[in-house]
Structure formats: structure tokens, C-alpha cells
Amino acid sequence: MSSKSPPAPLDYLRRWPLRLWIAGVAFFLYAPLVTLIAFSFNESRRNIVWTGFTFDWYAQVFQDDALIEAFVNSLTIAAISTVISVILGALVAVAMWRFRFPGKPVFEGLLALPIVVPEICMGVAMLVFFSRILPWPSDLPWPLDLGAITIAHVSFSFPFVAVIVRARLLSFNRELEEAAKDLGASEWRAFMDVLVPHMRPALVAGALLAFTLSLDDFVITFFTSGPDTVTFPVKVYSMVRFSVTPEVNAASTLLILITVVLTAIGLRMQGKDIARAEGGA
Amino acid sequence: MEQDWKQSRGSFFTAFAPPAFWLTLFFLVPLAIIWAYSFGKNISMTEVAVTGTLSNYARIADPVYISIFVKSIVYAALTTFLCLIVGFPVALAITFAPDKAKAWLLLLIMLPFWTNLLVRTYALMAVLRTEGYVNTVLGWIGIGPLPLLHNNFAVVLGLVYVNLPFLVLPLYSALDRLDRSLLEASLDLGAGHIRTIREIVIPLALPGILSGLLITFIPALGSYLTPDLLGGPDSQMIASVIERNFKRANDWPFGSALSFILMYLTFFAIAAQTLVAARRRKAGGEA
């Protein structure tokens, strides 16, 4: 298609005011992030004049034990809470999709609560819960000492997984499961061999979302973490409250990198899953 | 067809019990506790007696707290409005873009959305501060340095910055569902683009637009990090006051009451949106 042909009436992307607008929005969204990344490689501490390329700040990040520890904590919490969230989210999605039970609309509303309740409210509720009702011992060996944070993360993640999986289940042909059972598969076999493969893209998407939500969370973690259980966002928060430094830039750049890599992996896996599903159909 | 749970109790409980248990113990119980605390008072440093008092709620009627609530609502509404103005053309362009461009544009919007909130807020801090980029550029053209950080302007700008993707994605999915032939008909019959958008696109996509506005408004209303890092002494929003009562002032009952008022405001916003959407649907059905 030649770009000289006049734009179709609805081809808004080929109209220059809209192109300009999108360029502006992209600039607005990306300029701060690009600046942040660029200046993590800058020699000058003052962060505004480019004086030369360096990896020094990254070296400092890797020597900062507290920061490394917080980083490992974050990844550990994200990994554990993702596994639990995917299992719980998938289970509740299947239960809601498959069964009629008394009080279902009420339960549905309650399940949506963690998604809509403001983070700060959930954070303070967790703070009270873990200090008055179920005090989490602080002297447990790693990673058990991260239990309170992990539990809180599962509570806000698994309803999101449930939403994604339920949407996917809508396209499932129930007769397939019936057929498996007619052919002698047990309830469990039918679930694992017929339903789970169908849910797979949703499970991947859900896992990715749960992992990112956990890694991203500051507010709820802020209220559930103790002095010895610091996560990466909580640590960075305590650093940025006081100053803007190249070390924080370097640490943030690493986090952005992880996000980009994870997103890329997720999109790829989903793309493959969809391709396979469509190719097989 | 959905199966009645009694037909297969074993499978039902295997699937239903673990998540229901988790939701109850690790979400509903904590909320119930702060709900109870909001009717209580401190009797010692570590104990709260639930006495059924309404004094915590009465304290919120103080003009200081009322003004913080009003300010939070105004900031959240302003943020949502600005996101709509900035995001609508973007969503429109994405909707009607060719497939390949569409995928890239969606990625363009999604990537910041997936990036850590704290990192994004920090990035904004770094460009807005007195020695930051914006002020340097302003310095070259002879303006400034302007106080861009630690004030109310920074808070609203920050809220728009972090929430914009939240609005663009639902807007896109609302616009994507529109019947294109209606738009083409409007344009063929001589209506301009602005008029088509005002009289065809917006009314038809309204339920989706409203839910997008809600998805932006709710987190903006309860945001803690952005006003805390970008704001000044006078830009406290409600979440900062809640945080202070729990972490520093140690007045948990009052903090709990504030949390529940914030939650009620959230529910009110959801109910209002549901109601408007339902009324629109009914009106559409009759027409």
C-alpha cells in the first residue's frame, strides 16, 4: 500500500494531528524512563550533565548487600505468590464456571473485592491482621520470614488470575469434558488432560500478571514488611525519599529490564499458545 | 450447563474450598477487623477496645479532614479528566490502526503500565526536580528554574503519568467493539470527524468509557505513593492521612474509620457507574 494514497476515512493513524498527538504521549510516557536509564550510565553524580560512560553505579548496586537482599526477597515473594495465586485463581474460576451453588452472586462480589478495594485500605488491614491476629514471627529462617508479605500478595493477586481464567473458560466446549468422562477418564484425569490444556494460555497470562503485581507492589508490602523483610520497592522507596542518586537509577534500570524481559517472554508464550490452538483447530 | 454443586460435592469442595478459605481468612477477616476497630478506641499503646463508639466517624467531620477528602476527590477527578483528554485520541488511533501498527501501539502503552510504579514515579521526580531536565531546558530559554516538584502540580501530573495506561486500554477495548459501519455512514452522510465522534462514537461507547473512567478514578483516589513522593506539605491526599494514623500517630481506630470512608467512596463510585450504565442500556433498549 502506498503511503501517498489519501487516508481512508477511519484511518486516524495516518492523519498528522493524531500522529503528533501520539508522538507527544509517547514522549510524555517514555522520556522520564529513558532519562532514568541513560543517567544510570553517567559518570557524574550530579546526574544532569553527561560526563562519560560508566558501569560504576551497577558495580555499586551489586556490592550493596541490603539492596541485593531486598531484590532476592522480591523475586522470591513474587515466585511463591505466583504459584499459589495461579492454583487458587484457577480453582475458583473452575468452581464458578462449573457449579451452581447457593450464595454464588454474593461470593462473586466478595471475590471482586480485592480488585477494587483501595490498596491503602488493604495494606492497613493486613498490618492489623499480622500484628494483632496472626503475629508472624520475625525470627523464622529465610524464606519463611517473608510469609506475611507473600500471603498478602496472594490475596490481591489470585482474584485477577480468576478473572483471566474465567474469561478463557467461556470458550471451552463442555462436551469435550463429558466425552473424556464417557470414555472412562476420572474426574481428575478429565480435569488435567482436557480442561487444563484449554486453560493454559490464561494460566500463563495469569501467572505473568500475578508475578508483575507482586513485584510492583509497594503500598501493601510497606504495611506488612518488618525491618528484616524488606522488598525491592520498599528499599528503593527509602532511598528515593531522600535523594536522587545514580545507584537508584541503576537499580531501577535493572528492574525495568526484568519487566521488559518478562513481558516479552509472556507475549511470546501466549503467541505460541494461540498459534498452536488455532493451528490445531 | 452449570452443574448443581450437590451432584458432585467432592469436586465442588476440592475446587471451591481452598480459594474460599484463603479469601475469608486472609482478606475478609482483616477487613472485618479494621471495620470493627473503626468503632473502637485506643485503651493502651497496643490495645484497641471495640466499644461501638461513633466518635472516630464524628472526628472526620472536622473541616481539616473534610477538606482532605474533597481534595482527594477533586485530584482524582481532575486526573481522570486529563487522562481522558490525553488518552482518547490515542485510543481512537489504536482502534482504527492496521494490525501491525496496532500491536506496536498497544505495546507502547502497555510497557510503562507493566513497569514498577515506584520506578515510574522516581523517574518523574528525577526530571522535574530543580536540577532536572525540564528545568534545564526552561533555563536555556530563560524561564525558571520553576518549582515543578513537591507541589500540587507535580501530584496531578504524576497521577496522570502513572494512570494514563489504565484509561487508554479500556477506552481502546470500548472503541474496538463499535460497529464501524455506523461511523462510516455518519462520515458518508457528511458529518465531520468531530461531530461523528461526539454524536456517534461517544454515545455508543459510553458504558465502556465510563468503566474506563472508573478504573482510573479508583486508584487515583486512593493513591499513596505519588502524592507522598511528588507532593509538598500541602498536597496530602487521604491515603497519606491513613498511613500516618497507622504508622506514626498510632491511632488505629481513627485510621480504620478513614479507611472505611475511602472504601465507601470507592463503592459509591462503582455503584454510580453501574447505575448509569444500566440506565443507558435500558434507554437504548427502548429506543
Number of strands of chain B: 3
| Structure class of chain B | mainly alpha
Rg of chain B (CA only): 24 Å
CATH third-tier fold name of chain B: MetI-like fold
Helix proportion range of chain A = over 70%
Order of helices and strands of chain B: EHEEHHHHHHHHHHH
How many H/I helices of chain B?
Answer: 12
Q: What is the CATH-assigned architecture of chain B?
A: Orthogonal Bundle
Strand content of chain A: under 5%
Mean pLDDT of chain A: 86
Question: How many angstroms does the end-to-end distance of chain B come to?
Answer: 33 Å
Which spans of chain B of ≥5 residues are poorly predicted at pLDDT below 50? none
CATH class of chain B: Mainly Alpha
Poorly predicted runs of 5 or more residues of chain A: none
Sum up the structure in keywords.
heterodimer, A: 281 residues, 11 helices, B: 287 residues, mainly alpha, MetI-like fold, 76% helix
Q: If you had to describe this structure to a student in words, what would you say it looks like?
A:
The complex is a heterodimer of chains A (281) and B (287). With 281 residues, chain A is mostly helical. Chain A is 73% helix and 1% strand. Chain A has helices at residues 16-38, 56-63, 65-98, 104-116, 119-133, 147-169, 174-182, 187-216, 219-224, 232-240, 246-280, and one strand at 99-100. Chain B is mainly α and 287 residues long. Chain B has helices at 9-37, 55-60, 63-95, 99-114, 117-128, 133-140, 152-176, 180-188, 193-221, 225-230, 238-248, 252-286, and strands at residues 3-4, 40-42, 48-50. Chain B has a two-stranded antiparallel ribbon with strand order 2-3. In chain B, helix 3 (63-95) crosses helix 7 (152-176). The longest helix of chain B has 35 residues, at 252-286. Classes of the chains: A mainly alpha (281), B mainly alpha (287). The interface between A and B is large, with 84 and 92 residues.
